[in-house]
What we know:
The chain is α/β, with parallel strands linked by helices and 201 residues long. The chain has one domain: Metallo-beta-lactamase, Chain A. 23% of the residues lie in helices and 21% in strands. The protein is built from 6 helices and 10 strands. The protein has a 7-stranded mixed sheet with strand order 1-2-3-4-5-6-7. A 3-stranded antiparallel sheet has the order 8-9-10, with no helix packed on it. A hairpin with an 8-residue loop joins β9 (166-172) and β10. Residues 98, 100, 139, 176-177, 199, 201 line the site of zinc ion.
Amino acid sequence: MFASIAAAALAAATPATIAEHEAACAGKDGWSDPAPPIRIFANVYDVGTCGIVSLLITGPRGHILLDGATEEAAPGIAANIQRLGFQLSDVKIIGASHEHYDHVGGLAELQRLTGATVMSMPSAYLALETGKVDDDDPQLGLHKPYQPAKVGIMLADGFVVRQGPLAITAHATPGHAPAARAGLGAPAKAAAASLSSTPTA
Length: 201
Ligand SMILES: [Zn+2]
């Protein structure tokens, strides 16, 4: 099975160019406005929308998806993964920068489509499993509820999540949301990826 995942990764279809992405999103920056997938570097792709980044980190033993935009955006994110030549069932782990609707509204549907395990900081656990942000969230009342996802991996500051040679370290950066998290990845060899995110919405 792993060999087939590696073969699929090598055979990844051509992502859109930055110019094509900009043309598709000209005048649009909505959370759910569909955008074509682009390659950021190495094995890291943005499969999100015009307004929300969704990072796909691919590996020979399965992929990791970070952020799922909105419920309305989930089918387009899935289609972008497939457009790149990857199988949805090879997405093994889904995480999120933080628990607001514009970043996790699509997680439940993407979990259903991929069968992936969702990972969460403890302070986002109830939000992800109920679809409602905590009462102490600075943006309480600004975001609508979302379909609950099923959390299977509980993160902690410094916790390293591994999927084959991929390794993602969780760094707690609470403030924008109770569970805001930046990730730093250090996959093996040429599949190196370095990630960070500072959410603004
Ligand atoms: Zn936010």
